[in-house]
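Note to self: user wants both folds in one dump. Writing first protein now.
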Amino acid sequence: MYAQLREGSAWHDVEETIKSITENRIDTRYATLVSDDAHPSTLLSQGHLDHIVRRAIEEGVNPITAIQMVTINVAQCFNMDGDLGTISPGRFADILLLSDLTKVKVDKVIINGELVAEGGKVVVDLSRVSYPNFTKETMHLARSLTPEDFSIEAPVGKTQEISTRVMEIIEAKVGTYARECILPIQNQHVCIDINQDIIKVAVVERHKATGTMGKGFVKGFHLKEGAIASTVAHDAHNLLIIGTNDKDMAVAGNTLAKVGGGMVAVKDGEIIALLPLPIAGLMSEEPVEKLAPLVEKVDEAWKRLGCDLVSPFMTMALLSLAVLPELRLTNRGLVDTVNFKMVNLFEK
């Protein structure tokens, strides 16, 4: 069994997980360093695995051990050590030359014996890949969304307030808390409560135009106005929308349906940031240098709407991942992921 110690733009886990190495001194041959959900800006400003190796070294891991955790350990984990993982006869000549070991400063990169990068710059021509049209036609909603689609009707007999299941996020963590919160009712519809930091969340099926849609409430994003939508919504990657009002939520969802997916922020019916991800609603054909400013604009839009969290769209993308504790929302409704069952939005 191999342990994967993760460091991403939002998930800064190496600081804690590396203690298994530095404090308990377990066998490091079954430990690997991995990335997860790295922003374009992180890749440009800090690096990728080189950054994660640096983080391990900063936490007290021997530099040679840290490099082992991204080379031979990984190759053996995936049964690829016959070709990769070591500089030895019979293996591919994939080699990094470092000018500073402890700072992991990469001077040259050699792939299969060919120099491909030097001094932080690519020195070979990379051909542009063209993706077929079917990969860019994945937004299949049953129909355009309306503000009324996001209204949540109160049960019969409830007129003022109601006990409601609410997902509460944890900043820079993948888990949620399953909360029971009292929400107000107006005109027979359950409303958000900004004072409790509770807003709406919806998951709309977008692959087969089934029209299925789950609705609920989420706590912890600090949004004061507007709405955010994303088709990066693990693991089914349906259309995920959070917001403070139904109109902006509809505008956000319809905008992504029009551009083929991505991320969007809306305020007062106007788009204030848009990151198109037309390939399966998840990826872009554009280079990282061009994407990074668009991601930054989305991040700035979150702040403009009131959110001050670290990488909030990474946290948002996990709201629909129905395997993580404790409560998640899918297009089929709320899932109690501790007890592995669907649950009602309202407490009985």
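First done. Writing the second protein, which came from a different request thread.
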Amino acid sequence: MSDCPFCDLNHRTIIAENKEAISFYDGFPVSPGHILVIPRRHCSDFFQLSPSEQKACLELLNECQMQLISERKPDGFNIGINVGTAAGQTIFHAHLHLIPRYAGDVENPRGGVRGVIPAKKDY
């Protein structure tokens, strides 16, 4: 789609890719190394992707996680997928967030994806 920022990746540095998915650094990172994994096909809902597209995305998620461990040595990770406006989705091209976490990056990380970094929720 011409108005989708993820369908035109000319301005992005690709981290890893396969036949059905691609990954790149998030333009509004929650933490250093924050990566997005997207299907190549435009589809707004992760649950509407084909099983092979979901598998391709998860394969890249694992590949990117290994790369982040090697390059940045994070202490943990958050993985997130927003589906729909009510869930906070702002770009309607399915995407997975791989967010490296570092000891001390927030005072109390308990709760993880439940909103442990509220200042980074809205950008």
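Dump finished. Worth passing along: Strands lie at 14-17, 21-25, 35-39, 76-80, 96-101.
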